[in-house]
Structures are given as structure tokens and as C-alpha cells.
Amino acid sequence: MTVTEKPFNRSTDEVLHKxxxxxxxxxxxIIGPNKGRFLVEEILKAKPKHVLEVGTLTGYSAILMGxxxxxxxxxxxxxxxxxxxxxxxxxxNEANIxxxxxxxxxxxxxxxxxxxxxxxxxxxxxxxxxYFQYIKLTEP
Length: 140
Ligand SMILES: C[S@@+](CC[C@H](N)C(=O)[O-])C[C@H]1O[C@@H](n2cnc3c(N)ncnc32)[C@H](O)[C@@H]1O
Description:
The structure is a single chain. By secondary structure, the chain is an alpha/beta fold. 48% of the residues lie in helices and 15% in strands. The chain has helices spanning 9-26, 32-46, 60-67, 82-95, 108-111, 131-138; strands spanning 50-54, 74-79, 100-105, 121-124. A four-stranded parallel beta sheet has the order 3-2-1-4, sandwiched between helices. Helix 4 (82-95) links the parallel strand 2 (74-79) and strand 3. The protein is globular, with a radius of gyration of 14 Å. S-adenosylmethionine binds at residues 29-31, 54-55, 57, 60-61, 78-81, 84, 107-109, 125-127, 130.
């Protein structure tokens, strides 16, 4: 089976749908299916191997990106709130996506400088007033 075939698609979509429904009831600021389409388009264009996400929440956007990436890709995603990171871990495990997803619970301003390796795609979706700092920290 090649990595372009996605055997777990149904389960992945079900988990995405579950998070969308919950987000409506709990007013969670997930990227959602409409804006999410733009993110997916960028992922498909860039075909990254190492993705950094700042702002995991419950894992919706990480799953959305991971659904389009092959097994050898990796997503590192940072979430400041431990309970959200835990929920994201559960959702991501349930979604059965191919790439490895590493959730780091902590403040991105402290975590980013500790990361090793290079990233070829960065998705920033956390505290708006800190965006410039996240970007500056990822540059090196
Ligand atoms: C808009 S939500 C992320 C939504 C998510 N990307 C999605 O589409 O499913 C922003 C998240 O960033 C987290 N956050 C805010 N400041 C942060 C920081 N300094 N470091 C890490 N996470 C942060 C919040 O706790 C929140 O869960």
C-alpha cells in the first residue's frame, strides 16, 4: 500500500466532525472546515516533512494537516494548556493519521528555542499579540 492511499480516512473525518460539533457547543476557536481548506491547500502545495504548529487546542488543525501528509512527515505542535494538550492527544490517537505528531505542553515562547532540527512549514494559531515573537524565535 502506498502512503498516498489513506486507509483511515473515515475515522479521521469522524474525529474532525466530532471536534467541529463540540467546538460549536463550547465556542472553541478551532480553525474549522472553511478556513481549514486554505490550510490544507497550503499543506498540499508545500508538501512539508517537518511541520511546527503553535496553538494545538484540541488537535483539530493538527489532524487536518496530518490527514494530508505521508507517514514519514512529522508535526510538532505546542499547547500552553495541559488539559487541552491532553484532549488533543486523545483526539489525535483516535484519528489514526499517518504522520507522527508530537504534542508539547508548554509556552511556545519558551518551547520554540529548545526545539532541534529544521521546519519547512510553520502554522501559527495561538496568542495574536505574540505572533511576531513566535516567528522571530522559529527563524534560527
Ligand atoms: C485558536 S486556538 C488554536 C486552534 C487550533 N490551531 C485548531 O485550529 O484546532 C489557540 C490556542 O493557542 C494556545 N496558546 C495561546 N498562547 C500560547 C502560547 N504562548 N504557547 C502555546 N500555546 C498557546 C491556546 O491555549 C489555544 O489552545
